[in-house]
Amino acid sequence: MNHDQRRTLLLINPVSQLRTGFLMNRATKCQPLSLGIIAGLTPQEWKVKIIDENFRQFRYYEADLVGITSFTATATRAYELAGIYRAKGIPVVMGGIHATMVPDEAGQYCDSVVMGEAESIWQQVLEDFESGSLKKQYRGTFTDLIHQPLPRRELFHPGYIAASIQTSRGCPMDCSFCSVSAFNGRHYRFRPINEVLDELEQVSNNYVFFVDDNIVGHNTSARERAKELFTGIIERGIKKHWISQASLNFADDEELLKLAARSGCSMIFLGVETEGIEQLAEAGKKLNLHMVKDETYNQVFNRIRKHGIGVIGGFIFGFDHDTPQNLLNRARFIRKSHVDSIQVSVLTPLPGTRLFEELREAGRLTHTNLPADWERYDYYEPVFKLNNMSAETFDHYRSMAWNSIFSWPQMVSRLFRTLLSNRNLKNTSIVWLNLYHYRRIFLLGWKRPYN
Predict the structure, then answer these.
(1) pTM
(2) Can you spell out the DSSP letters for 68-90?
């Protein structure tokens, strides 16, 4: 017990010790929003502290109860930190997407696992802890309308450039490599727009990342709701530069694009994944498959870019249909594409996805010393046996592809193309910095050990 007689809840955001990755750049670090929400759900009679390894490596801090979140790539580190507190007899609760997908595994390294969304269950967890009857597992329930408490932003490290805000949860798509629908459900669920706007007005950051998996959704009602949100930002006079994620249908509605731009949209991330029809079918990207047959990707990108919104294209390497030549072809496609910034990754099967189950059942996973090997599931290397090449051959051609994509001539050419397209120096500088940061991450960060 602390001197102020309040119990202390310590929340930890762990970081993998294998590679620096996104730690190289402040601009690519995302606030641990889930921990801020947990803090907001915790009664005032508790003292709450967040240890965030995005900025500082762990140092022991006294606590009565510890809560740890993790993704799959950070699970190894999460279990290590949990062990430090459990060795001292301090209960540890684990949550987040990885613990939700493998609760029995996580339960071996903590005292209790919270599965799914915490809003409906966190108060019960605290009450059970205080009565000495903490359960091994708790499962949150979905609500149609999300009344999320305001996250305790004062607990976040001040080094974050962008504030993370969520306006919706869930996704009806069923991409083979994505676990979002398993964690947040197959239906869109929304926060009341006024609550989102109130939160936007309260954040001090000039930059905002809407962490929704798809800010405009896949149906008419979701799209109209996005327009209402953008209109609310404009009418309230909220001046923020924002970035979010969407599907290619973001470009379908001219009115939506105008409202997004006027409301401060600087960049939108689109999961393009690949130019190959076989690979798109393999991934279950039905919308992309439809789009690539009907029109070129560049037409989609240009409809967005003419409004001054930068396009970040996400591309994946390592599909079953990929050959060494396919990797080089994808790099050529990316070099010629009209995206303004580029995010690349290696296809990675995560627990809770169809891809993981299929590869596990086929005996194709190559990194199975779990949980130690979870840190290798970080999108930088193949963790399963590839169909058409060895891991060494893949790494050779992947390296050639990524070096060509992020070569300086390509970088400079893309910069001028962006400037000529949006004719906005501020937005161009935001997009350029994003591209530059990705270059550092994907050409340097994946090689460097964390220190």
Answers:
(1) 0.92
(2) EE--GGGHHHHHHHHHHHHTTT-
